[in-house]
Each structure stands twice: as C-alpha cells, then as structure tokens.
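Entry 14. Two folds queued back to back today. First construct below, sequence then structure tokens.
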Amino acid sequence: MHTYFKKVGCPFARLFPSLFLCFGISLASAQTGPGATDTEILIGQSCQLTGPLAALSSEVRQGASLYFDQVNAAGGIRGRKIKVIALDDAYDPKKAAENTRTLIEQEKVLALFQYAGTPPALAAVPIAEEAGVPFITPFTGSDALRKKFSPYVFNIKAGYSAELETMVKQLATIGVTKVAVAYLNNPFGTDGLASVEKAAAASGVSLVAKAPVEVDRSKIDLAVDTIAKVSPQAIIVVSAGKPSIDFVDAYLKAGHRSTFYMLSVISNAQLVAALGERARGIVVSQVVPSPWNQGIAVSREFQALARKAGIQDFTFSQMEGFVSAKFLVEGLKRAGNKPTRESLVRGLESMGKVDLGGFVVELSPTQHSSGRSVDMMILGRDGKFTR
C-alpha cells in the first residue's frame, strides 16, 4: 500500500490524513518523488561487477562507499540514508541500457551515479535524459559526455581529450617524436585515437603506428607486432583496466621495450599486481587529487576513512569514487527537504564554485562539466605515483 500511494501521488492524503497515519504512512514520504522516502535515498549504478574491468570498477565503488558510509553513520541527508543499487553490465552497452531501465522504472532511483566505462555510459544517457533522471559523474572521460550540453549529465573531472593532449605535449617537450598508439576497439578507444591524432598534428609528433586492442585480449599479438616493428620511442595506450595491462604485458614478454603512457582509468594496484617491477616507469595521466597527498584536505579525509576501514593500499580510482560521492552528497544537501530528480538537478546547478577539500568544482545552469586539471605521474619502485 505504501508503494502504491507513492506511485499515484496520494490524492487522498489531504482528505484522510488519519487513515494514512493508521497504516504507518507519513505525509512527508507520500509526497516525496521517486528515489526518496522518509528514510532512504536510492541511487542507481550500472558498472562492471564481472569481466575484465571488474577490478577497476570495484576500486571506484570502494572509494565512494567510504564517503557514503560516513554520511550514513552520521544520520544521512536530513535523516535519509544513501543506498546505492549496483547492477552488473560486464562492460556490455546493451546490458547497461537494460540496467538503466530497471533502475529508473522498477527501482525508482533518484539519480544514476558513477556509470563505469564509455560504451555503457553512452548507452545509458539517452534513457536517463528521456526520463529526466540526473546522470552524475560517470567513470569515463568521454568527450561525447562533455562537448554537447545535457541538462541531466554532470562531470567533475577533465575529459580524455585533455589527458591525451597533455600526454602528447609532454612527449613533444622532452623530444619524443616517434609515438605509437594502442587503442581499445570500441567508441572509447577510437575517440581517444582521434584526440591523439589531433594533438600530435598540433605538436609536431609523428604517429608511426596505430593498433586496435580487443577487450577479450584476442588479436593482441597482432597489435604488439604492428607497433613493435616501427620501434616507437613511446606508446600511448588508449584503454582502461585489464586490457591496458594485457597489452603492456604482451609487448614486454615479446622482448620489446618502450615507455608506456596510460589514461587515468587504470589502477596502480592492478599495474603492480600484474606487472611487478615491470610496471615501474609507466606514465599515467591523473585528473583527481593524489590519494597519498598529505597537503590536500580531501586526500587526508580519504586516507583517514580508508585506514579506518582497513584499507592500506590506495589508488586514484578509489579517490575518484570518493570525490564523486562527496560531490553527489553536496548536491543532495541542496536538493531540499523533499528531494526529487528535478530538485537535485537544480541543487547541482546552484553550486557555483565549490571546494570539496582542495578539489574545486564549478557548475551552473549552463555549465555541467567541471575539471580541467591534468597531472602526469610516473609509477615508482614502491608502486606509488610521483610527479
């Protein structure tokens, strides 16, 4: 009965309030929109719980949970605890689309959060837009989610084109002119390749080889051979998670050497676990604060909560989940006493310039993508990144 009245909007609430109280139904919950009751705020997520990118997705979720757990332990948002409903898409965009419909139509979530991967996110956005559901901080730097304004999509970090442009500029600055690109054979990879080509043309860097990489590792020997035969000074790997590691592993095992540049969607923990000492010297672009930085408030906050939860090995992926959760909570606080999807959008747009503890986000009704900063980090002997 409670669910029914939430769906139909409780037309009899004003006429028979005592009847509602008799059944344990508060007027406040009856008037709340989808995804919010008196006690809960439901957030939906489609990500990789299985498959080659599951480990990376797990780190992002772990970081977000650290912050949500702290908020819930302190009473939640105006007494409402945050509950994340995560569904597995295994990096399959069709499954991500199905999950999105389930989350919106059946689970009635207030918002969609931290969708992992470019293909799943791109498949979900049109569904979210049609339903008027906020799509918040997807775990992808896809420029397709940044260049075209959407009233429902919110980003807080620099996109892949900014990361790749920074890489190419650094390579040009240090005199590297022969560069190869290994790219994931999907929209994420091909869009990234286009960004590298544009940056290389502007910086005078020659792209001497381009090779597609499959998510399932098939044809990886062909990609290695294509690139190795031109002996590039550096290789830019436009991929995420395990496929990135698979390529580097295969390239090194074949007896070849080069300097590898990777995007932020890679885990230092995964690199070290899979490659060991061979991971040293890999350069990775980063778009959120370092989880080891004692000089930034949000990093100290993350470290304290992580250690309290028994986590000793930090990653940038955890940090991205953490700052994204902090951003969502800030929006929920601004969404009003009875949060709705519409009031959450307004709350996020009203932020203006907000400092999340050394990580600044700046949004407005006409600007939904924040974040321009890109740092180039190198993996050291201890498995941690340094500038």
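Second construct, same run, same settings:
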Amino acid sequence: MYNEYENIEVNDYDEDIKKKEELIKEAEEMMASENVSLNAVSNLRKKWKRIHYWESAFEDQLADKFEDILDSFYGKQKEYQKQAKEAKEELIKEAKELSESKNLNKANETMKELMAKWKNSGSCGKEMDDALWEEFNAARQTFFDKRHAYWTDMQNRFETAKKTKEELIVKASEYAQMEDVAKANNLLRDVMEQWKAAGSAGRDAEDELWDKFNAIRQQFFTRRDEFFKEVHKQQDEKYESKKELIEKASEIADLKEYTKQHTEEMKNLNAKWKEIGFCGKERDDAVWEEFRSHMDRYFNGLSQFNEERHEQWKMRMQDAKARKQDLLANQKRQLKRMEDGLVRLLSEREIKEEEERIEDKKKFIAELENQIADIEKQLND
C-alpha cells in the first residue's frame, strides 16, 4: 500500500515538472516574440503558481530560470515603453506641425495616418499614455478646428465665386450678342480675366458653370471669325485703293508742275485717303508713310515754288516802286517850275490855263504817291 502511494506521488511530481518545463519553453518562445503583453506574462505566472510545489532543488532551479525569463520581459517592457514614448512624442510633434499646414486637404490624410500610427505605437504605461494622449488629441483638435474654419471659409468662397460666375455668364451672353463685334470681343476678354480672378466655385458647380460660359464664348468666336474674315476682305480692298492713290500722288509729285489744278488734285487725293478708312494696322502705317512722302514732296516743292514766285514779285514791285518814285520826283520838279513861272504870265487866260495844268499835275502827283504807298503796303504785308 505504501509503495503504491509513493508511485502516485512520483508520477504527480514528474507531471508537474513537465508542466513547469513546458511553461519555461512557452515563456522563452514568448520572449522571442516582439509583441509581448503584460497580461500574457501575468497569465504565465498564474499558471506557474497553480502547479504544485514539491520543495525540490530541481524545482527551485526551474523557478529561477522561469523568473529570469520573466525578468527579461520587464527589461524589454521598459525599452518598449521608452520607444513607445519617443514614438508618441514624435507623433505629437508632427500633429502640431500639421495644424500649421497651409494645405489642409493633404494634411487631413496625413493626420489619419498619424492616428493609425498612434494606435500601433504601443504603451508606455497608463499614466504616461493618458498624458501623451491628451497632448496628441489637443493637437488633433486644433488641426480639426482650423480645418473646419478652412472648409467654412472655402465654402463661402465657393458660393461667392459661384455667384460671381453666374453674373459673368449673364454678362457674357449680353456681350456676345452685341452688333459691335470688336467691342464685344474686348468686353469678353475682360470677362474672361474676371472669370479667372473669381477662383473656383467648387467641384460640384465649376464644370457646369464653365460649360455654360465656354459655350457662349465659342458661339461668339464663330461669329467673330466670320466678322473679321469680312473685315480683312474689306481691308484688302482698302489697301489696294490706297496703293492707287499713292501711285497718283507719286505721278503728280514727279511732274514738279505746281499748278492750281495739280494742287487741287493732291488735296482731293488726301480727302479720298481719309474716306477710304483703315486697312489694317500692319499695312496702314506703312502705306500712309509712303503716301505722305509724295504729298510732302509735292507741297514742299509748291512752297518753294511759291517762295520763288514771291521773291520775283517783290523784285518786280520794288522795280515798279523805284520807277514811280523817279517819275514822282520828276513831276514834283515840273510842278515847282510851273508854279515859279506862273508869276511871269501877263494875261488872265494864260494864268488860268497854267493854273489848270498845275492842278492836273498835282492830281497826277497825288495818284503816284498813292500808288507808291500801295506798293509799300503790299511789300510790308
């Protein structure tokens, strides 16, 4: 009976040793893993305590080995907690930086990534976890508040842009129907600049607004192209007409005959030039310079011709004045002789006849003086 009882105890002892060795192996495997939790270690310890202690030296050796293995966990746990704390502090820093970001749309995705990293950053002890979480969450809340303000402001800007662009569509429609195509083209160009300056109306409205606005522009552009095609055709015709006037002006200027008829013809050419109108900026300046050169050539020649004629006239007038002055001096001498000889006449008839001749002579002298005065006036004028 006693031997049988001893065999039972030996079997139980062996079984308990086996269980403890298995727990040691499990602990070693657990420690080899990077993801070791405090609960898992506590459970191992609980399992060990539930195994009967036979007070043997071998059991004590196993217990020491088991405790050494568990002690390594606590060393690792401290390292893990240190790493977790550093990781969380870095995430807090990044979260604070994100709250200052200008691109909040992109930053929002990054904030989600930071939250995922936080969940996987591990624990650094409940008290430290709670303190760090408060700081991290405060940075997140600051970010979310700014993002909300940003979205609110953006929605307001979207609404303002939408209203502005709806008004621009109405304007564009009115301008596109104007009869003055050139003016309408300038106005629509200004409207396009205002459209760009208005900013986006948001993803939902922008495409629809642009389609309406652009449809009006494209319809106008078709009409504008036809209009300018006709304008260019008319300008070509005006260009040819102006070239003909240039040729005529050149022919008259080449003659160097400064007659009244030629002068009138040149003036008429200038009037016709103005009547023809614009023939396109690239060509109009060039043909005007050529036309103007022939006009200047003729009228400069006319001016010189008139100056020469005037000088010839002045010479003739001065010659005429000199002849009349000589004649006047001669007549005055004759008058004096006649007046001096009057006293020598005896008969009344002779005296009367002489007095009549003297009076005629005075009239002739007065007429000469008037003629000379008129010549001097003309020369002075």
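Quick look at the second one. Residues 1-6 have pLDDT under 50 and may be disordered. Residues 281-341 form the longest helix (61 residues).
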